[in-house]
Specification:
- Residues 37-494 form the Major facilitator superfamily (MFS) profile domain.
- Keywords: Membrane, Transmembrane, Transmembrane helix.
- Residues 7-25 have a biased composition (Low complexity).
- It contains 19 helices and no strands.
- It is an all-alpha fold and 498 residues long.
Length: 498
């Protein structure tokens, strides 16, 4: 099967053309100030991550209140984790396609399209009448949001002075933490508001999906106006939208079919997750084959690129283990209310508001001094590994305090989030500008297997052992592997490093 987003026919952009998202001489695709660009991309990350994070607290509320289509199941934690994995299967499958479409049709167009798509599908998630409808809506949400990442990273690198590139990546990515925090903290309050003021009763889980969906549509409209006023040509969303629909519909059918077959035959959740892994392997094979046939293997498939890609699997595993399950973990371990657990868990997400930009700032200082960023990445990964293991040990000790859990989550979050823009900056220097959309798309395609596997594996471990500690130790062990991989990377400094 040929992937329409990966074709390299006559319409494919070449370096230096406007359609490729690279400014031709005298015709800048983006003419605004780079800090203004940071602000709008940050807002995009906020709503994008709030849209995806809302699933975890909603599932936790259903489990706690035995409501909705999850509360009365035999293995609610495993089913909730499976829903998260289905979302990230969709999110994963559009990573490379999103980067390629951005290289061809423009990175601005793909960012606006992603936000518009995510808003509409989040609203559809709230309107879903049952489990299958909810899964389909979440899968489609993931497919649309998957194109944001690779295009966002390329725009920051292309339009930020090299001396400020990593801090720019970090500032923008801090929107991830703000969105995570909003999704974790606001969702229980929005559900209470829906149950009380709106009289939604057992359907109150829909309220946060409506609110976050509307917010995404507002940011999408604002981003469209921003980019439209600061470019050499109007944004044309029609062609990339048709390409994305043509790609997403078959992918959504495959993912939903996997879920339905698993439900019909009573497959255990771990076996369904393996099915998602098969889809990942098939997509990765198609992508790698396309890169080789296009003659870009030397630019996109060399040793250092693969070390960075595979090492980041651990980052996505830990990100979505703690993002998806931290509320439930804290609530069970400390025997607290869902609201108190959400506030405690938010320390981990909120730490990124500091960690992302500070990590980028320190890395840029090293680059300006002619030093590498790799030692910082390795140190951050080591510290997070140790603190994640300490978090697991506190769960084994029995009924830890909310203060202790919040402190560990905050400190680990500082180093964990500082790591990410540093890795992004290292990766951005491993390929030429015309290949960066594809590079980051392949990067997140590979890394997202961690996000796909983490929620369901952790949920299965919880149901099997009665404790969240095995899941925490698994996350720490996976991160320890990334320490070794990043130690082996041969970093390439920007040409303007000195």
């Amino acid at each position: 099967m040929t992937d329409p987003a990966l074709s390299t026919g006559p319409g494919t952009a070449t370096p230096g053309t406007a359609s490729a998202g690279t400014a031709a001489p005298g015709r800048p695709l983006f003419s605004g100030h780079h800090t203004h660009l940071w602000g709008f991309l940050l807002a995009g990350w906020v709503v994008s991550y709030a849209d995806r994070t809302v699933t975890g607290p909603v599932v936790a509320w259903m489990i706690e209140n035995k409501a909705g289509f999850i509360g009365d199941t035999t293995h609610p934690a495993a089913l909730g984790g499976l829903i998260g994995s289905m979302f990230f299967t969709g999110y994963m499958l559009t990573q490379y396609a999103g980067g390629r479409l951005g290289d061809r049709y423009g990175h601005r167009e793909m960012l606006v399209l992603s936000l518009l798509w995510a808003g509409l599908m989040t609203l559809a998630s709230g309107l879903a009448g049952g489990l299958v409808g909810f899964v389909v809506a979440r899968v489609l949400t993931g497919l649309g949001e998957g194109v944001f990442y690779s295009n966002d990273r390329v725009l920051v690198i292309a339009h930020t002075p090299p001396a400020r590139r990593t801090v720019g990546l970090g500032v923008v990515l801090s929107g991830l933490s703000i969105g995570l925090t909003a999704g974790v903290v606001a969702t229980p309050h929005l559900i209470d508001w829906g149950a009380g003021s709106l009289g939604m009763g057992g359907a109150a889980w829909r309220a946060p999906l409506y609110v976050f969906g509307i917010c995404s549509l507002v940011v999408s409209a604002a981003s469209w106006a921003f980019f439209r006023a600061r470019g050499d040509r109007p944004l044309r969303l029609g062609p990339p939208t048709l390409r994305l629909i043509g790609y997403s519909v078959p992918a959504a059918v495959l993912i939903t079919a996997l879920f339905l077959v698993a439900d019909a035959f009573g497959w255990p959740e771990w076996l369904t997750a393996i099915g998602s892994g098969v889809l990942f392997a098939a997509m990765l094979t198609i992508v790698v084959r396309g890169i080789v046939r296009a003659g870009h293997a030397a630019a996109l498939l060399h040793r250092n690129v693969w070390l960075v890609h595979i090492g980041f699997v651990a980052v996505m595993w830990n990100l979505w283990f703690f993002s998806f399950w931290s509320v439930q973990i804290v609530a069970e371990a400390a025997h607290s209310s869902l609201t108190a657990a959400a506030l405690t868990a938010a320390f981990n997400a909120g730490a990124g508001i500091i960690g992302f930009p500070v990590g980028g700032w320190i890395a840029d200082r090293r680059v300006r001094a002619g030093k590498g960023r790799k030692p910082l990445a390795v140190a951050c990964a080591v510290v997070h590994t140790v603190l994640a293991a300490a978090f697991g040990a506190s769960l084994l000790a029995g009924k830890p305090s909310l203060l202790l859990l919040g402190l560990i989550l905050f400190c680990s979050g500082l180093f964990f989030n500082a790591l990410q823009p540093i890795v992004h900056s290292i990766l951005g220097d491993l390929a030429a500008e015309e290949h960066r959309g594809s590079l980051f798309g392949l990067f997140n395609l590979v890394a997202e297997i961690g996000a796909v596997a983490s929620p369901v594996v952790s949920g299965v471990l919880r149901d099997a052992t009665g404790s969240w500690a095995p899941g925490v130790f698994t996350a720490a062990g996976v991160m320890a592997v990334s320490v070794v991989l990043y130690s082996l990377v041969r970093e390439k400094l920007p040409a303007t490093a000195a």
